[in-house]
Amino acid sequence: LPNAETVRLYDRVLASISAAGARIVLISGNHDSAARLGSIRQFAAAGGLHLHTAVESCAEPTVLADEHGDVAFYGLPYLEPETARLPLGVAAGGGHAGVLGAAMEAVRRELATRATGTRSVVLAHAFVLAGSVRVEDAVTSDSERSLSVGGVQTAPPELFDGVDYVALGHLHGCQQPDAARTWLRYSGSPLAYSFSEVRQRKSVLLADLDARGLASVTRVELPVPRRLAVLTGALDDLLGAAAYETHALDYVQVVLTDRVRPLDPMRRLQTRFPFAVAVEWRPEGGPPVLALDPTNRRPDRDDLSTAADFVQWVRNSRPTTVESALLSQAFTATRVRQERAG
Question: Can you tell me whether residue 280 is helix, strand or coil?
C-alpha cells in the first residue's frame, strides 16, 4: 500500500487538475490495486474523476463532449492474462496480446454502436512493441515492473487500430512505439523513478482532437524539481574536484572506482552531495578474485587465512598488521571458550 504522504500527494494533484477545469480519466496499472483504486468509482465520477479499473468495463466508455461533439474514452487497465482472460473470453496461453486484443475488439464493437462522428480515445496499460523491435532494444528503464510471468509481456501496435488516439502507460520514457501510428503514444512518467532514467526528458503529451479525429500531438516538457546524476570516480576526487560542484544538489548515484573499498563512503559523500542516495563499488581493474569468495572455502586454509581472504574479498586489500592481530585474538578467544564448554 502507498504511504500516507503519497496518498496526500495523489489527492492534491487530482484536486489541482480538477480546479483547473479538467475532467480526469484514470486507469489502474500493474503497480496498483485495481479494487482499492476503483472502490469509489461511481461516487468519484460525479465530481469529474472517472476511474476505469475493472476488466469487465473495458468497453464502457466515459463520454465527454466538446464543441465538435462526443468523445468516448475507453479505459483498459492493466490486464493480467490469467485473471482477465475469463471475463474477456480468451483461451489460455494467449498472453497479454490475447487479452488486449479481446478488450480492443469489445471497444470497437461498442464504438460502432455510437453516432457517426463520435471520436474515440483509449487509455491502456501495456508494453507495446513493433514487430521489428526486440524487447532488449526497447526504450525501457529499471523502474518498470515486468509484465511477464512465464509468458510474452509485449503486444503489437496493430491491436489498437480503429480509434482516434491511444494514450499508453507502462514505459517511463516518452515515445512512439510505431512510426506509422502517430496516434499511439507513451507520454512517460512525470518524474524519474530510478537512475536508469537519468537521460530521459520528462514531459506530458497534449493531444488535440478536432471534428475529424486527432489533429495534433504536442509534447510539453515538465520542470525538474531535482535533477538526477550518476557520478563515477575515486572517492577523494569526487569530494575534492571542482568539476562535480554542479551536482551538489542533485539526487546522486555514485560508482566508486577506488582499488580498495573506502570506509563509510555514503556518510563522506553526503558532506558534499547531501542528496546522494546510492553507492556502488566497482574497483578499477576489476573486482577481487573469485577464488576469495567465502562461499567457496578452501580446505587447505585455516580459520585465520580464510578470514583474511574474506577481508580482501570485501574491500580488495589484505588485513593490516593490527587487523590480523585482532582476528587472531578473536579466534583464540573462541577456541578457549569452546574448550571450556566442552
Answer: strand
Same-domain pairing of 126 and 192 = yes
Same domain, 113 and 243: no
The alpha carbon torsion through 35, 41, 42, 47 (nearest 10 deg) reads 160
How many CB atoms lie under 10 A from the CB of residue 71? Answer: 19
Look at the block and give the residue holding cell 475493472: 54
Report how far residue 227's alpha carbon sits from residue 269's, in angstroms, rounded to the nearest whole number: 17
Are residues 110 and 148 part of one domain? yes
**3-state SS assignment for residue 159:** helix
pTM of the model: 0.81
DSSP code at position 256:
E
Per-residue pLDDT of the chain (342 residues; tens, 9 = 90+): 788 998 899 899 999 999 999 999 999 998 888 888 888 888 899 889 999 999 999 999 999 999 999 999 999 999 998 889 999 999 888 888 999 999 999 999 999 999 999 999 999 999 998 877 776 667 778 776 666 544 457 899 999 999 999 999 999 999 999 999 999 999 999 999 999 999 999 999 999 999 999 999 999 999 999 999 999 999 999 999 999 999 999 999 999 999 888 999 999 999 999 999 999 999 888 776 666 666 676 777 788 888 888 888 888 888 999 999 999 999 999 988 988 887
Q: For 28, list phi and psi in degrees, rounded to 5.
A: -90, 145
Q: Containing domain of residue 65, as a range?
A: 4-221
How many domains is the chain partitioned into structurally? 3
Residues 273 and 174 in one domain: no
Name the 3-class secondary structure at 44: helix
The whole-angstrom separation of Cα 100 and Cα 81 is: 9
